[in-house]
Amino acid sequence: MKVQGQGVPKPPQPSPFGAGITYRGRDHVAQVMCLIGMSSDTKMRKWYSKLSEVNADLNHGYNIRFNNHHELVDALKEVNTIIQKAANLR
C-alpha cells in the first residue's frame, strides 16, 4: 500500500479475482494456492494417504450402518404384516 499525503494509507486496488473478493479474501486465496503447491511435498503425500485411509474407514462404517438399517426396516415391515394378518384372524 502506498501512502498518500499525511500518512493516510491508500485503499487496496480491486481484486484481480473479481470485485467480490476482499483484500482479506485475496490473502486466503494466496494461502490456498500456496498449500496446493505444497501438496507435492512428501509430508503432504503422507498426510493425504492417512486422510484417505480414515475416509475409507468412515465409508466402510457408514455402509455397514446403512445395510443394517435397511435390514431392520425390512424386518419391521415383515413383523407389521404378520401383526396385521393376526389381527384380521380374530
UniProtKB/TrEMBL annotation:
Coiled coil: none annotated. It comes from the Eukaryota. InterPro entries: Bardet-Biedl_syndrome_2_prot, BBS2_hp_dom. GO terms for cellular component: BBSome; ciliary basal body; membrane; motile cilium. Residues 42-88 form the BBS2 hairpin domain. One of its GO terms (biological process) is non-motile cilium assembly. This is BBS2 hairpin domain-containing protein.
